[in-house]
């Protein structure tokens, strides 16, 4: 009997010692985890997760690492957005400065009493032109911002492609006639599920780019085809094409390639891409044997 009591006492003492050791060990690990967290917050040193192997403490450390990683990614994304916003504001300021400078100069000259009537009319026309450019710039930026924010609701109607193309080409009829340029559209009864107004604006911006980079007496060709997967619209011109270094940036906002027009803001193609991608579509640019080529695809299923 006495022997059993002694064995029981030894077992109890051993269990107490083990519990005491585990408690001390856990306190040490918690202290180390606290120090590692402090290093993470103060110095950005990642948590050494491989040093924590035991049970719930390991799970806690692993969850902390996940939270830390997510917070780090969020911070990086916020910083990227801040940088992008700062760059965009700088670009907008630069784009607005040019017409504003021209307008200030025109206003200063108009205040001259000795100015001839013909010159006064020319300066007034220049003021109207610069105001139109600024109005287009602001309106386009607002459209892109709304598309980015997802606040524009586009209809999804089944519309004949020819209807969209005719609407897109209508504002270019007179400028193309002055340049003696031809617009040749080849499509039959193809239809696309899209918003007619917005899609016409996107294609119109692409057609305008083609017109501006095609010489007099040149041509612009538009083809359309329908497949089980997507509706494809191809726009070719007989212009100068794209420089290889510009191809990857043509749809970037404010990007002006080596062949850009002096009056270009670098926003027309960016707006076109935003409109097309908002309707489950893609657009790309490439060169072909005689000039530039744009390929638009509207997918029938979400990709």
Write up this protein.
This protein has helices spanning 2-43, 55-110, 117-149, 161-169, 173-178, 196-212, 268-277, and strands spanning 157-160, 182-186, 191-194, 219-226, 230-237, 281-288, 291-299. The chain is an alpha+beta fold. The longest helix has 56 residues, at 55-110. The mean pLDDT is 79.
Task: Name the quaternary structure.
Answer: single chain
Largest sheet: 5 strands, mixed
Low-confidence stretches: none
Nearest-angstrom radius of gyration? Answer: 33 Å
Number of strands: 7
- Helix share bin: 55-70%
Give the overall shape, derived from the CA principal axes: extended
Order of helices and strands: HHHEHHEEHEEHEE
Major sheet: order of its strands? 2-4-5-7-6
Give the distance, in angstroms, between the N- and C-terminal Cα atoms.
79 Å
The average pLDDT is 79
Strand content: 15-25%
Number of helices: 7
Structural class: alpha+beta
């Amino acid at each position: 009997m006495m022997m059993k009591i002694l064995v029981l006492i030894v077992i109890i003492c051993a269990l107490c010692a083990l519990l005491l050791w585990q408690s001390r060990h856990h306190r040490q690990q918690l202290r180390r985890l606290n120090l590692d967290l402090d290093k993470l917050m103060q110095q950005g040193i990642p948590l050494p997760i491989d040093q924590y192997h035991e049970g719930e403490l390991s799970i806690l450390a692993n969850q902390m690492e996940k939270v830390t990683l997510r917070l780090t990614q969020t911070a990086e994304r916020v910083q990227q957005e801040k940088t992008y916003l700062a760059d965009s504001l700088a670009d907008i300021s630069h784009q607005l400065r040019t017409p504003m400078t021209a307008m200030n100069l025109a206003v200063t000259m108009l205040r001259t009493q000795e100015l001839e009537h013909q010159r006064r009319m020319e300066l007034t026309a220049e003021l109207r032109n610069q105001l139109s450019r600024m109005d287009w710039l602001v309106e386009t930026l607002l459209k892109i911002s709304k598309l980015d924010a997802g606040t524009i609701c586009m209809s999804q109607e089944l519309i004949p492609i020819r209807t969209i193309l005719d609407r897109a080409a209508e504002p270019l009829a007179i400028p193309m006639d002055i340049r003696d340029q031809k617009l040749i559209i080849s499509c039959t009864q193809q239809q696309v599920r899209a918003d007619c107004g917005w899609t016409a604006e996107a294609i119109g911006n692409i057609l305008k780019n083609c017109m501006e980079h095609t010489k007099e007496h040149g041509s612009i060709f538009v083809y359309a085809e329908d497949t089980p997967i997507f509706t494809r619209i191809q726009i070719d011109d007989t212009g100068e094409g794209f420089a290889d270094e510009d191809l990857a940036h043509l749809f970037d906002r404010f990007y002006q390639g080596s062949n850009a027009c002096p009056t270009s803001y670098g926003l027309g193609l960016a707006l076109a891409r935003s409109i097309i991608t908002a309707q489950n579509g893609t657009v790309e640019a490439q060169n072909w044997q005689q000039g530039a080529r744009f390929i638009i695809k509207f997918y029938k299923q979400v990709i």
